[in-house]
## 1
Amino acid sequence: MKRATLATLATVTGLVLLLGFKSHSTNGGLATVTTARSPANPPSAGARVRPRRSHHPQAVTVRSVTGAIAATPYGPVQVEISLRGSRITAVHPLQLPGGAQRSVQIADYAIPQLVQETLAAQSAHIDMVSGASFTSAGYERSLQSALDRAGA
Amino acid sequence: MTAPVSVESPVRRPVRHVEHCMGTVFTFDVRGDGVDRAALQRAVDWLHWVDATFSTYRKDSAISRLARGEHSVADCPREVGEVLELCRQADRASGGYFTATPGGALDPSGVVKGWAVERASELLRAAGSSSHAVGGGGDIQATGEAAPGQPWRIGIAHPLRPGNVAAVVTGRDLAVATSGTAERGSHVIDPLTGRTPTGLASVTVVGRRLSIVDGYATAALAMGTAGREWLQGLPGVRAFAVTSGGQTWQTGEFT
């Protein structure tokens, strides 16, 4: 049960991060603000900018970034991510559909080779498309036909 | 006066070709040195021959005559026996979730397209190509690589978000078959309930041979969410699915 929840969270988080980092996101994109995390002050988008720096001057910046609230098929989702330099080290859900908040520590965040986020076909650089069987009429509406037209 | 003879160019070249057949559309993408026009024509002619032989919509096809009992399997082209054997293997492997007799009538459509594409791919290989992909109605057999050092990239159409790709599979010498409810074929029926299945919007099976994974994808869709465990237990294949709720799962190791 827990594994399924984490897997769902990872998928949802991946979706939110994708929405957050897209430059033309309609929900405003990733809010580049940082807040000190504290249970007494629930973080929200639009708070003050204040990166937390480590004590070693040459060390990499550690900061927290709160994303805008994203509307997903599962409900509204908002996450805060911790970054060490450009590497995501933790994802803290602030708002999840269905309630329970749980922190997920990620040692090495990596998108698997089988990419699960929804991609626009033209940015996925694909050679062919596999999908449910289509009729000749259905083909005209299919991604494959778009590829065939582009490659002709 | 002799009829003019058309001379096919013996020159090999890469080519993309789209062919309407079997009520759907086939795509040929031949890379590298390519093939000559005659070889491509042979592959295209092969698809039309399969259509004429296996179409359940044609009363005079071999499969229709067989279904009506007018012919025995021995009277049919040997390819009919081959396809029926593929159906039997898929039936055994899936515990009956794949069947050549959905609703009681003989209809091997669940494997015919994939098998035809795999054979078309072999024809191109016999003509000297080592780098080509053939797709038919959403099922693909890809040979070799897309380019030297570059694996083929096969997108999996998102069944719930038209125009989007749910995932990308990359590899060499691979077959990708997807069964889905988006445009339901009559062959996808849960044999236990007699109804079209719910639970999965699409399931994609990746392996070496399209004639095999085509049957697996058909069976897995009929199984619904129970198909996941079945696919996990199959050797040499990997699967990816999108549920009707938009969640995804995968089995096997995608590297």
## 2
Amino acid sequence: MKRFVISVVILTVIIFSSLKSVCYLKSTTETLVDKIDSINLCVKSDNINSAFEETKKLEALWSDKKDVFVMFVNNNDIDDITYSISKLMPLLEYKDKSEFCSNLNYTKSLIMSIYDNDSISLNNII
Amino acid sequence: MAIVFIRTLILYVIVILGVRLMGKRQVGQLQTTELVTTILLSNISIMPIQETSIPLAYGIVPLLSLICFEVILSFMCLKSTRTRHLISGRPKVIINNGVIDQKLLVELRLSVDELISQLRQHQIFDINDVELAIIETNGTLSVYQKFSSQIVTNKTLKIQYTKENSGNPQFVIISDGVILNDNLRFCNKSKDWINSILKSQNKSLKDVLLMTSDIEDNYVLIPKELTGSNEKICN
């Protein structure tokens, strides 16, 4: 009986943690994607100073969040996003707008794929 | 390399704890679900060790989940006969009155060679000695021999129990210099009794490799070879 109770407790913790991690991933990826969209908007309206500020905030936000992501996301995916974000500031400094936007969208798709790969859906289960 | 080592250690501890959680049955003969779980556990635990880009949680969560499923299923099998029969199947009589059920042999995909081999493991070399043989749910064979082939017991010889001819089982009370308190209590003995024996034999606790005793005052003491003598001391 003791083992049964321990097992039920462990299983409950696992299910609860899994659901919590999915919710966390969803909210965090949405925040990151919103940040990227706002940078895109700044660049499109030629507001380079704001784009700089927002990109710095994106770097800081990612630096913060990736320490948590590392617990339940493949390290290779995290590394890809880190490399991609690290390229943004130099591209903005050297005013390579097209390359910057392209890299930004690439970063956005990488971030969105993190949640897409971990969300509870039939595609992912099959 | 350090990461691989640390992950291996963590997963090793978790697998051991998990097998302990599943209980002693895992160590003995396995039912179908237990065999499946054991195989899966070993494969899953390797993944995060070999592939360091995979988070440790990707190894721990399936490990713990499998273990919990196994314990819960075992509990359900314990409480419900129907579940037990569904999961583990039922024992099947393969030999009845000395006659092999050949249809069942085919159904179980058990060859005659395998059947005879299992009989030999029961020290039965003549199939005519078998009255009843049952294939258990874990695949082992239980055999009931014909009367003429059965081992003679005290009951058969009508030998009555007396204090003189009764044997008591011996329990290990000292193992490699350490007193096993549970077994000591079982034998109704105390540490003072052990100390008096050791004193009479001029030995100390750390000199003892093995000491067994029964509920009477019968004991066997085997000192360690390093003490210079390794002859068995009996009472």
